[in-house]
Structures are given as C-alpha cells and as structure tokens.
Recover the amino acids of this structure.
C-alpha cells in the first residue's frame, strides 16, 4: 500500500496587488504518494507555478500563503520538530508551514528539490556548473551526517567558500568526492565530456544542457520530492524527449517521488501515475492517469483532452478551448462555477454557487463539477448566447500575454 509523502490541504496563496487581491491558489488539496509521479496540468495562469512555489516557500511579495497545511512525512524531521515546533507534528507528518523559517528553508535541496523552467534563475552565472552541483552534494552529505542540524544544511557555499578562500588561499572548500559526484551526475543527465563541462560557466552551456545541469543539481541533493515545473517547455521537441527519458529512467531506477507541473498533456501521459487538473487557482479534477484521460468528468478536462487528436503522436499546436482563464482578481470572480462561461454544459444550478470539491475520504477520481453528482440535464441548459454580453469584460488573460489565444494553453506536445 503506497504511503503519502506529502499531503497538501486547503493551500491558499494570494497576491495583494494594487489592482486588488489575486486568488492564485485557492483551497488546493492533493496527496503525493511515495514513489509516484503526480502531474498537475492546466492552462497558463491556472495557479500551477504558484502552487509549486508555495510548497517550497518561495512565494514573493506581494504574494503570501494565507492558509492551508503542507504535511510532509519524515520521521526524523518529526522527531526533531517535536522539540521546537510540537504544533507542527502529527505522527510522522510535519506541517512544514508551522516550522520556523530557517527550518523550512533547510528543506530545500535535501528534501524538496525544484527544477524550474528557467535554468538561468537557478544557477549562479559566475560559478562553474560543476562546483554548483558539488555544492548541492556537500549540502546533502552534511544533512545526512547530521539530519537534525538545520545549520549544517543551510550554510551557504558561496559565503563559506569566500571566507575559506580568504583565510586559507589555495585550499578548496569542496571535497574531491563531491566534485567527482558532480561529474557523475552530469554524465547521468547526458552531458558529454562531463569532467570538462563541469569547469564551464552556465553561459557556456546551451539551453538543453543547462536544463540537464539543473536536473543534475536537483538530483545531487537526493531529494525526497522533486518538484519539476515545466522542466522542458523552453526546449525543442527532440531535447524535451531526451530530458523526459532521463527523468523517467532516473525515477524508475531510484523510485524518486516527482510532482510534475506542465501544460503539456503529452508529457503527463508519458510520465505520470496520477493527475490533478487545475483551473482558476483550483484543482477541478483528480484521479489516476487512466481515470482522468479515459473517463474525464469535468467539462474543462474533457475540453483539454478533446482537443488532442492523438496522444501517442507528437502533434502540433492544438485548438485551445474557447475563452480565457479568469483574471483571478477577487473582485472579478463571480459567485458561480468559474468555468461556467466556457462550459458547453453550463446549467442554471452552475450559476447559483460554485460546486464543491469532494472532501477527504472521497473516491480517488473526483471532480469539482455538478456533473460529478448527476448527469447533464438539458432542460436546465443555459441559452447559448447567455454569456455573450459579459465575455468582453469579465474574462481577461494574463497581462504578460500568455493567455490561450497566444498559443500558451494546454497542448498535446509543443
Ligand atoms: N507576482 C505576482 N503578482 C501578482 N499576480 C501573480 C504573481 N505571480 C503570479 N500571479 C498570478 O497568479 C495566478 C497563477 O499564476 P501561475 O504563475 O501559478 O500560473 P501557471 O499555471 O503556472 O501558468 P503558466 O502555465 O503560464 O506558467 C495568475 O493569475 C498570475 O497572474
Ligand atoms: S459545474 Fe456546471 S458550469 Fe461548471 S464545469 Fe460543471 S457543468 Fe460546467
Ligand atoms: Mg507556471
């Protein structure tokens, strides 16, 4: 029986902007089982990245996690936290939101590693790539040697190296073992001449190579959970496939738990055991890959999947679902199902209040839609032109232009 490694409950993250409150992630709950690949899929602006950033406590101003639990199973952490943050502990689980800031920070790397879309933001431009990976190896070694010391995990290599280099010129801070491991990791992710490439700076790497290096850096910490947010989106299709193969092979060999975020349904089909579909800051359907792909309940999921000609083929761009994701500005969110104005099955009851997502203990395959409880009732259908008047002013895309119409929606393979 698989156990949950992570159990997220009612996670709610908002941005308090000049335009108003943005409900980026609203009461999101999901579990990640040990050893599985859980996919989160949804259009641009649906809250996928903010969910990932919330898990690793990297939401920046004007954003803030305002509610929810991030329960992480780790008996060693639970034991140490029971002394200084007993409220955070429930059996082997620790609600990381209730840990002091420095303890939360210490989880990044050895516990939760991240791969983001933009490798440049994760690597220091002025340090050789191999050294940065070796640093992650060192942090992991120190954490394993003394799992209850947060200090050993959080020491900054950059500062440590600077101080040691000043005090003891000519003496390296990184051990030969860590440097050798970094080269092994570069080889593992398919970087040719890894010993030589380890000496190069990030700008000397191509985009695909940098993405591989970032995976190597994430793996160096031997993380309990790898959070990969659009890990291949910026790359061309052939390199995407190579990198997904590497990730898939490593996952199979090590049984690593992965939370994979993407707007690419082909990537989900290829990599994931279970899926959560996000829309307007919420999970609107979840289930096994088969449940969600073969028997989708939510009209949004049906729309995403219906636009895929054939998942096995590396198809081109897809027809997006008509309309845009809502702005998520609180004052513009209608008190109704947020998908209603795009939903081909919208009924009168969908306008009365948003449907509930089934609570804990509900079946694995669940959807936040009235059609999960009863069949479509054509006599309750709204007139086709019902939303025509409001469509011009209530649905807006992201202000960075990455709305559906720009081709950044969910795709089978782009
Ligand atoms: N710094 C910020 N300030 C204000 N709003 C933000 C900020 N970052 C994200 N948001 C808003 O939060 C919502 C969720 O954004 P998020 O980046 O999580 O979407 P996403 O699903 O990852 O989209 P994409 O597929 O484009 O990466 C969007 O409405 C976005 O505009
Ligand atoms: S609740 Fe109603 S409007 Fe919303 S997705 Fe379901 S059928 Fe469509
Ligand atoms: Mg994103």
């Amino acid at each position: 029986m698989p156990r949950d490694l992570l159990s997220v409950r009612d996670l709610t993250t908002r941005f308090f902007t000049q335009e108003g409150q943005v409900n980026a992630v609203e009461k999101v709950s999901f579990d990640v089982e040990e050893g599985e690949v859980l996919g989160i899929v949804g259009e641009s602006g649906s809250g996928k990245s903010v969910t990932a950033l919330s898990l690793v406590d990297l939401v920046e101003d004007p954003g803030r996690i305002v509610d929810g639990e991030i329960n992480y199973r780790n008996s060693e952490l639970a034991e140490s936290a029971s002394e200084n943050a007993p409220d955070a502990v429930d059996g082997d689980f620790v609600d990381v939101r209730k840990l002091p800031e420095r303890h939360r920070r210490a989880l990044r790397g050895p516990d939760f590693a991240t791969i983001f879309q933009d490798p440049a933001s994760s690597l220091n431009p002025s340090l050789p790539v191999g050294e940065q990976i070796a640093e992650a190896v060192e942090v992991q070694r120190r954490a394993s040697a003394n799992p209850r010391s947060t200090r050993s995990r959080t020491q900054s290599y950059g500062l440590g190296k600077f101080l040691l280099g000043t005090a003891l010129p000519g003496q390296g801070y990184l051990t030969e073992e860590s440097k050798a491991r970094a080269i092994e990791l570069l080889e593992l992710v398919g970087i040719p001449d890894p010993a030589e490439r380890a000496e190069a700076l990030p700008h000397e790497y191509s985009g695909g190579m940098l993405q591989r290096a970032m995976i190597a850096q994430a793996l160096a910490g031997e993380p309990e959970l790898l959070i990969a947010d659009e890990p291949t989106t910026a790359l061309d299709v052939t390199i995407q496939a190579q990198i997904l193969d590497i990730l898939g092979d490593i996952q199979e060999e090590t049984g690593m738990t992965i939370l994979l975020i993407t707007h690419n349904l082909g990537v989900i089909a290829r990599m994931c055991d279970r899926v959560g579909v996000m829309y307007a800051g919420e999970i609107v359907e979840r289930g096994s890959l088969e449940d969600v792909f073969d028997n989708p309940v939510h009209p949004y999921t049906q729309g995403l999947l219906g636009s895929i000609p054939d998942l096995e083929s590396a198809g081109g761009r897809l027809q997006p679902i008509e309309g845009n994701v809502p702005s998520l500005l609180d004052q513009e969110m209608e008190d109704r199902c947020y998908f209603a104005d795009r939903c081909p099955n919208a009924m009168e009851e969908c306008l009365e209040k948003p449907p509930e997502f089934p609570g804990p203990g509900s079946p694995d395959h669940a959807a936040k839609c009235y059609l999960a409880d009863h069949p479509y009732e054509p006599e309750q259908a709204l007139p086709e032109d019902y939303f025509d008047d409001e469509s011009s002013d209530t649905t807006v895309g992201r202000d960075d232009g990455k709305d559906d119409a720009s081709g950044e929606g969910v795709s089978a393979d782009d």
